[in-house]
Amino acid sequence: MPSHPVALCFDANDPRRLAEFWAGALGWDIDDASFLKLVPTDHTTFQLHFLPVPEPKVGKNRIHLDLLSASLDDQRELVEKLLGLGGRHIDVGQSPDDTHVVLADPEGNELCIIEPTNNFLKGRERLGSITCDGPPAVGYFWSEALGWPLFWDQDEETAIKTPDGTGPYITWGPPVEPKMHKNRLHLDIAPSPDDDQDAEVERLISLGAKRIDVGQGDVDWVVMADPGENEFCVLPPQ
């Protein structure tokens, strides 16, 4: 069986503040029994985890979240809410004619508030997409890695969705720039309880991933990079 996503993890200088921002953005519940995480209240099948790090954000993220609005009023209200929670408007090269709104969270992580007329994300809930910079090869890898079908593959853009079609999409597309530093966001995935972690790591290597060292030390997860050099972790079966 392919692995399944467990969490999208954020490096955070202030995990509590960042968790509160994203809880407000998504309407998810905060759980800090062991570390700060957000538990979905919709059909998303993974959590958001906020991991403390000392390093500040450097440069534009390769991964950001697209939040879908239900109406123009909802879009305006969500933008105002996120500004009140510590977000800010930023310019990443968007056109004045663009109908989505680009913001940064309190630590500078980019996000987009998508207009309700967006046909590509039609039918998604608040979390519309994990949107990534990357060539088609990275989308092909993750389709095989997770067993999520590839439903979009044109104009150097790819997208996958869960087998039952619920929850957010994961998408890849230009711009693709040289990777200069560790990603601020990464996926944690895990094989199913009856599967083997080492065998899954070898399968992912056969698909184009590789093991990497980010200073993790002696841990029970395996740190890897996909064909686009994006870090991810393979947890023990669960």
Short description:
With 238 residues, the chain is an alpha+beta fold. Helices cover 19% and strands 32% of the residues. The protein has four helices and 16 strands.
CATH top level is Alpha Beta
Largest sheet: 8 strands, mixed
Please count the beta strands (DSSP E, at least 2 residues each): 16
How many structural domains? 1
Describe this structure in words.
With 238 residues, the chain is α+β, with helices and mostly antiparallel strands. The protein has a single domain (4-173), classed as Roll (2,3-Dihydroxybiphenyl 1,2-Dioxygenase, domain 1), CATH 3.10.180. 19% of the residues lie in helices and 32% in strands. It contains four helices and 16 strands. The strands form two sheets. Strands 2-3-4-1-13-16-15-14 form an eight-stranded mixed β-sheet, covered by helices on one side. The protein has an eight-stranded mixed β-sheet with strand order 6-7-8-5-9-12-11-10, covered by helices on one side. The longest helix is centred in the first third of the chain and has 13 residues, at 72-84. The two termini are 12 Å apart.
Topology:
Elements: E1 4-12, H1 15-26, E2 29-31, E3 37-39, E4 47-52, E5 63-68, H2 72-84, E6 88-89, E7 101-104, E8 110-114, E9 127-133, H3 136-146, E10 150-154, E11 157-160, E12 169-173, E13 185-190, H4 197-206, E14 210-211, E15 222-225, E16 231-234
Parallel strand pairs: 1-4, 5-8, 9-12, 13-16
Antiparallel strand pairs: 1-13, 2-3, 3-4, 5-9, 6-7, 7-8, 10-11, 11-12, 14-15, 15-16
